[in-house]
Amino acid sequence: MHLEFTAEQDELRDGVRNVLARECPIGLVREVVEKGTTPDALWSQMVELGWPALTIPEHAGGLGMGAVELAVVVEELGRVLAPGPFVPTVTQFAPVVAEAGSPEQQERFLGGIAAGDLTGTLALVEESGSVDVGHVATTATPDGDGFVLDGTKETVVEAPAADEIAVVARVPGTGGDDGVGAFVVPRAAARLHPIDALDPSRPLARVALDGGRVGRDRVLGDPGPATAAVVGRAVEAAATALAVETVGATQTIFDITLAYAKQREQFGAPIGSFQAIKHKFADMLVALERARATSYFAALMIAEDDERRALAASMAKAAAGDCAALLAKEGIQIHGGIGYTWEHDMHLYVRRVKSSSLLFGNAAQHRARVADLIGL
Fold first, then answer.
1. What is the reported pTM?
2. Fewest 10 Å CB contacts: which of 44, 78, 84, 263?
3. Residue 2 main-chain phi, psi, to 5 deg
């Protein structure tokens, strides 16, 4: 098990960072937030460079790389608050299909992602807010060789831009992991209710499934404990990706705030020279490095399919949530009055990290999951 980046991974990071510096300036994020612009050009550039195909298996037309390489890309996307369907498509929808789909379904859906012809997202969380697949209440009633879906999913990421939605539901009359299945639903077959999200650069929606029917070709595996287990593994991958993305965004918060503390003067000296401010930056750096280390460790556990992957994913999501809370607070406070203004970019980063820290379980939920996994 290697705990250092390879030369190829460092080259990937540098290449992605250079492209995003050119193609995704903060002005693009502001256009999405303020004008509702869709980042189609950015997505097209990602497709042209083969980023969506990064972790898609080679037999489905992808590059066949692993979770660590994906984490490298996602961290860079977080640094610039990249809008668009990449994160839900590649880190939420694709893992479910890869884990639970048949070879034909993988070729159909994953091949579409690799070619840039298909986007997707994952609909798991419901009104309870639980990320435990055994707690889903949305039903999938057998109907011939297909299923009829009923229920509502909350905070589905980029649902309006997704071509396909992987819905987690259960057969009526079952409990726990029994009867849990995954179903690929076309966006047009569901009713979407946009949510007035804290982070307008990442649209969220409530997805209502009012008796829509899916055929057998859209059922990923057979409903039951086996499918619940592979969906749970996909959720671990999704939570880890959000943790890594949060690390990227909080790194930029740290960098922006540090640059400001070096040039903002009070009493004839930069505020960064004051001991109280130095203490704040020390605490911020510790939280950031803790979140980065746990997030990449979780990505490595997923890449190695290590038995600690569930524990590592929850530790990463909890650490990233704690990091987001601290850096969002200190980033704004160190900036003083200007940190609260719409014209300054700080609020864009704060909105992203606050929003991402709640998706697929907040820090408290994942700490509770860690306690369960280690038997406390």
1. 0.95
2. 263
3. -95, 130
